[in-house]
Each structure stands twice: as structure tokens, then as C-alpha cells.
Design goal:
The protein is an alpha/beta fold. The two termini are 27 Å apart. The chain folds into two domains: 3-175 and 286-371, Aminopeptidase (3-Layer(aba) Sandwich), CATH 3.40.630; 177-284, Alpha-Beta Plaits (2-Layer Sandwich). The strands form four sheets. Strands 1-2-6-3-7-14 form a six-stranded mixed β-sheet, with helices on both faces. The protein has a four-stranded antiparallel β-sheet with strand order 4-5-16-15. The protein contains nine helices and 16 strands.
């Protein structure tokens, strides 16, 4: 096959890929909209069954739809998700291709990555006995329903490949672990003008707690502790009887997450009569470089063998389902998906020119892992 023929095949494949990607992006699928997630999984199965000789299926895990193709006991587990953070109609335009830039809700995080995996598997006939592609629909809210499935499959896998988006083209060899807390202060309502002294002000108490909580961060170790959402009070002329604060904590080490968890659970009220309730804890353990370095080195060898420039790697603050896989001891490599930027932002996009090379890289990488 000469270079012109290869180029024509790539062009045809790219046109088909774009049509499939557009249909996935325009099938909006915010995590909280279960019916929308059902529709996008159905569509993914339909696309897969057109591309691949072995059928894909829609499964259910704790009430959430799951895309499944391939082995039930995979040696190579490819992970993706098809839910997004975008409510229906909140991203405009819904689909746009301009020069090298493809825009749309979830195109980067991570519908393009899922589709790249499908197209790579199309290049690997007969791999279904050793490979599985599993795409969940609750990753954006912590994979609470799909976590057990991911860890069960990962325990026996020789490699877990996560099709989350790349960081400036680099794969992700370390991710922070995440913790989420809800701090609730129970005070006592009273008239703010007539007799405020008879109340117990939950807003005042939560404000004092915020100052304690932010001191738990350790930026030298990459540990963040961030108060995020806050609700307090009921009316403008009433001493607030309740305040609820949400806290997001992240770190590259499990020891740091555990330190913050102990401190959060030891918080105590300062106002007489106030009661404090702290719920939540560690959600995803960190993805540490020790779990990724062997696969990363192999990826660079594969990239060199097919004539690509070095891929590079990075540590990032966001977590993914790769954190769960690594936590049960599975060799894991993340960030093998789309090249672009703007995850969760209104400039979310994928670079068209990166799609074909990334499919080729993933194809060669999975093929090498199967061979071994």
C-alpha cells in the first residue's frame, strides 16, 4: 500500500469519525439526566455495532446504563464515560467545526476519546477475547454506581487504559485523589431585629469553620482543601438556623487525604448550643506514578516504533476512573484520549488533526499489549 492510498483511507475514516462524533455530541447526556444517558449509551451501541463485527451491549450497573464491548474478563480494559457536565441546551453552538477545531459539549471530556477507542478496536479483529471497552454514565459525579464494576474488572486486568483527554497531547501518569465533605451547622432561629440574642447563628459558625478548613491545605505537597458551595439561612430577617458547606479536597498522596479526613471529622463548633455534622470522605484514591510508569514507558516505545514524536506525560489535579483501577493494583495509564482543551469550559474543543494519529497510537499500543 503506497502513501497516497494510506492518505485516502485516513481521509475517509476521518469523515466517518466526524459524523459519528457529531451524533454522540448532539445526543446531550448530562449525568443527572438518566433518560439522556440511556439514549447516548444506546447510540454508542448502535455506532459500535456498525463498526465492529462483534456486537456491543447496553448493560445496567446499580441503575445506571453501561456500554460494554468485548471480554467479560479482559486482560486489557479500556475505560471511558459518556456522561457530561453540560445541562441540556447550555452549550452553544451544539456542534461546530472550524479549521482544526471541533467544539461541542463533552467533545473533549470525553466522547472523542470513546470514539477513538472504537475506531482503534476496529483495526484489531479478533481482540474481543482479551480486550473490553466499558463506558459508564456517572463518572462526572464520582462513579458511585460504577466503581465496583471498574474495580472488579481491573483486579484481573494486565493493563487498564483510560481514554480521558490528553493534557496538551501528554498522557496522565499521576492524578490527585479526591475527597468530598458536607459540613452542616445546626443553630437556632430567632428574629434578627427583635431578639437576635435568643438565636444561634449558623452563618457565623460556618464562617469560623471556613477559616479553620482552609488552613488544612498543604500546597508544598499539592494538597488543596477548598470550600465550594454554601447555603445558609432562610429569610433576611431571621437568625440562620442551619448552614451547609461543601468542601473539595485533593492530593497526590493517600496519606495527605487521610490527614485531611481526620481533621475534618474532628471539627467542633465554637458557639454555645451549635451542633455540627460532618459527612463524606475520600472518594477516589490518588493515581500514583508507580502504577503508571511501566505502561507509560511501553507507550513511548510503541510511539517511537510507529514513527511518532515522544508523547510525554504529566501529573494533574483532576481524578478519573483510572484512580479506582490503580487502587486495586492494576497497571494503569490515563489520558490516552482526545487532544484539545477546555474540559468543563465553554471553549471545550478537540483538534481534528490529532484524531487519526491518536487512533493509530492506541491501535499499536493495544496490539503490543495483546502480543505480550
Amino acid at each position: 500500500m503506497n502513501g497516497q492510498e494510506v492518505g485516502e483511507i485516513r481521509q475517509t475514516s476521518t469523515v466517518t469519525f466526524l459524523a459519528d462524533l457529531r451524533s454522540l455530541v448532539e445526543c446531550e447526556s448530562p449525568t443527572e439526566d438518566l433518560a439522556a444517558c440511556e439514549r447516548v449509551i444506546d447510540l454508542a451501541v448502535e455506532i459500535a455495532n456498525r463498526l465492529l463485527p462483534v456486537p456491543a451491549f447496553k448493560e445496567e450497573e446499580s441503575g445506571r446504563p453501561i456500554f460494554w464491548w468485548g471480554s467479560r474478563t479482559p486482560k486489557v480494559l479500556v475505560l471511558a464515560h459518556l456522561d457530561t457536565v453540560w445541562p441540556q441546551g447550555s452549550f452553544t453552538p451544539l456542534w461546530q467545526v472550524e479549521d482544526d477545531v471541533i467544539r461541542g459539549p463533552g467533545v473533549f471530556d470525553m466522547k472523542a476519546g470513546f470514539l477513538q477507542a472504537l475506531y482503534a478496536l476496529n483495526n484489531l479483529p479478533g481482540c474481543q477475547d482479551q480486550v473490553a471497552l466499558v463506558a459508564t454514565s456517572d463518572e462526572e459525579v464520582g462513579s458511585q454506581k460504577s466503581r465496583d464494576l471498574i474495580q472488579r474488572l481491573s483486579r484481573s486486568a494486565k493493563a487498564v487504559l483510560v481514554l480521558e483527554s490528553a493534557l496538551d497531547g501528554k498522557v496522565k501518569t499521576a492524578r490527585k485523589g479526591t475527597s468530598n465533605y458536607q459540613v452542616t451547622v445546626h443553630g437556632l432561629a430567632a428574629h434578627a431585629g427583635l431578639e437576635p440574642e435568643k438565636g444561634i447563628n449558623a452563618t457565623v459558625e460556618i464562617a469560623r469553620l471556613v477559616l479553620q478548613i482552609i488552613k488544612l491545605e498543604n500546597l508544598e505537597l499539592g494538597t488543596t482543601v477548598v470550600p465550594t458551595l454554601l447555603h445558609s439561612g432562610s429569610t433576611t430577617n431571621t437568625v440562620p438556623a442551619q448552614a451547609v458547606l461543601h468542601v473539595d479536597s485533593r492530593s497526590f498522596t493517600l496519606a495527605e487525604l487521610q490527614r485531611v479526613e481526620v481533621a475534618m471529622k474532628e471539627l467542633a463548633p465554637t458557639l454555645a448550643g451549635a451542633k455540627l455534622e460532618v459527612t463524606g470522605g475520600i472518594n477516589r484514591p490518588p493515581l500514583e506514578f508507580s502504577a503508571t510508569k511501566v505502561l507509560y514507558q511501553k507507550l513511548e516505545e510503541v510511539a517511537q516504533a510507529i514513527g511518532m514524536e515522544p508523547i510525554g506525560h504529566a501529573a494533574v489535579g483532576g481524578a478519573s476512573d483510572g484512580n479506582f483501577a490503580a487502587a486495586v493494583g492494576a497497571p494503569t495509564l490515563d489520558g490516552l484520549g482526545a487532544v484539545g482543551g477546555g474540559a468543563h469550559a465553554d471553549h471545550e474543543h478537540v483538534l481534528l488533526s490529532s484524531i487519526a494519529p491518536r487512533i493509530e497510537l492506541l491501535t499499536a499500543f493495544i496490539k503490543e499489549l495483546i502480543r505480550e
